[in-house]
Sequence to fold (306 residues):
Amino acid sequence: MPINVNDPEYTRAEKDYFDAKTAEDRLEALGRMISHAPKHKGAENLRQQLTQRRKRLEEDLEKKRKKGKSSKDGIKKGDMQALLIGKTNSGKSSLMRTLTNTNQKISSVPFTTKEPVVGVMEYEGSPIQIVEIPAIGSENFERGLVHTTDLVIIIIEKIEDIDYIKEKLPPHNGKEIIVVNKSDLMTPEIKRKISARLQSKRYNFVLVSSFSYSKDNGIEELKRKIFNSFEVLRIFTKEPGSEKKEKPMILRPDSSVRDAAEKIFKGFSKRIVEVRIWGPSSKFGGQVVGLNHKLKDLDTVEFKTK
Ligand SMILES: Nc1nc2c(ncn2[C@@H]2O[C@H](COP(=O)(O)OP(=O)(O)OP(=O)(O)O)[C@@H](O)[C@H]2O)c(=O)[nH]1
Ligand SMILES: [Mg+2]
Fold:
């Protein structure tokens, strides 16, 4: 038989419980209901029901939290990472599909993308990780990824979008490229005006159309700008007597031969007896150098081990 509880604190907590908009608020209100529930024997059933309800709510919340984690922490940052950030409908998903191998949904319905989508853009043999972040200003926008990224690609449809986005953008140390999308809808006159405005503000920018079939769509220029913003060294490695590896390793500027060796695996540099290099940092092909030798982009390094 349901019992009537007269405690006003309990009544308020119960109202909050039913009015709660989030699971966290509901759980909080339920906690108050439990502490104000009558203590006498006749209310034993009620107390039991409430604690059971709390247990279920807590389990649901924990599940949700874990799921949320897997989307956030599941993205292992690549050597070169760029985030696509923009308002809803600006064409993030469309651009991503043109740049990479992903196949996410494209739609004029706002807030279609609800979780980050990760793809890879190959540039001259080097993989660049591109991540679409759900629309800025939406509850699914993920701030955490912005702090650590190398490059923020800001997608806009009109110039005013830049201020809106920059205001909401969390602090970060990455570079920025402004991408004006949907240029296929613009007259040459409008394109000229937009370019002049962005140039006067000294933005690194490019006008594109995500539609790959659209002529002069700016996509190749964007790819080049993306790659150039990383300022990395692409280093090919090899063993004596064999061909160099097909794909270069990616190193920070100012890296040495030792850094390259340690990237292969930790402690590898201790096993090396001789290093030869070819390419931009060598005086001649096959020059023998020490572990402290500074590398240049597109060098080939040969490691001879014990
Ligand atoms: N004309 C034109 N339309 C485009 C272009 N890029 C995207 N669109 C259209 O814009 C709409 C939104 O595209 P999406 O790629 O889904 O946009 P989004 O930024 O990912 O949107 P949300 O994930 O919902 O925030 C779709 O109707 C696309 O067809 C473009 O370059 N030109
Ligand atoms: Mg999208």
User: Anything to note?
Assistant: The mean pLDDT is 91. The radius of gyration is 28 Å. Residues 92-93, 112-113, 132 surround magnesium ion (ligand 2) (CB under 6 Å).
